[in-house]
Every structure is written in structure tokens, then in C-alpha cells.
Amino acid sequence: xxxxxxxxxxxxxxxxxxxxxxxxxxxxxxxxxxxxxxxxxxxxxxxxxxxxxxxxxxxxxxxxxxxxxxxxxxxxxxxxxxxxxxxxxxxxxxxx
Length: 96
Prior knowledge:
- By secondary structure, the protein is mainly alpha-helical.
- Helix content is 61%, strand content 0%.
- The chain contains four helices and no strands.
- Helix 3 packs across helix 4.
- It starts with 5 loop residues before the first helix and ends in a 5-residue tail after the last helix.
């Protein structure tokens, strides 16, 4: 995935909106945009599953004021890691 591509950001935005941990994505498509750049930077920097999970948990707790179940960020992390692996290989960059 090339740095800063709209396709990459839109694809990640779509995944975050499907997850929709605070239940507002239907009315606020940009609600989770605050996580786009930090997540993409982490992925491009080679972040592992633990780092992504910890980031998501921190965002849910500190930014959105939620107390997530342990499975919530864990399940999304697995989905995001799979997406990133497939997307980077499809684009030929193979960050994973």
C-alpha cells in the first residue's frame, strides 16, 4: 500500500466503521478517522498483533471512554492484521 493513498484509508475506514465500537458509524462516517493515520503508521512500521491490540484498547478507553471486553479489541486486531497482510501483498509492497 502506498503511503497516503485514499484507497488504503478508505478501506481501513470501512473496516473501522463496520466494527463501530460506539455505534455511530451510520450517522458519522468519519468518527473513527482519528485512528486511520496512527494505525497505518503502525502497520507500515511493522507493528505486531500486540501493538495493534494495545492501540485499539487505548483508543477505546482513553479516547472514546469505553470499557471494552477483552475480546473486542482482540477480534478487531485479528481482522485488521489479516486485512493489512492481504492488502499489502495485493499491492506488491508486502509490508507483512
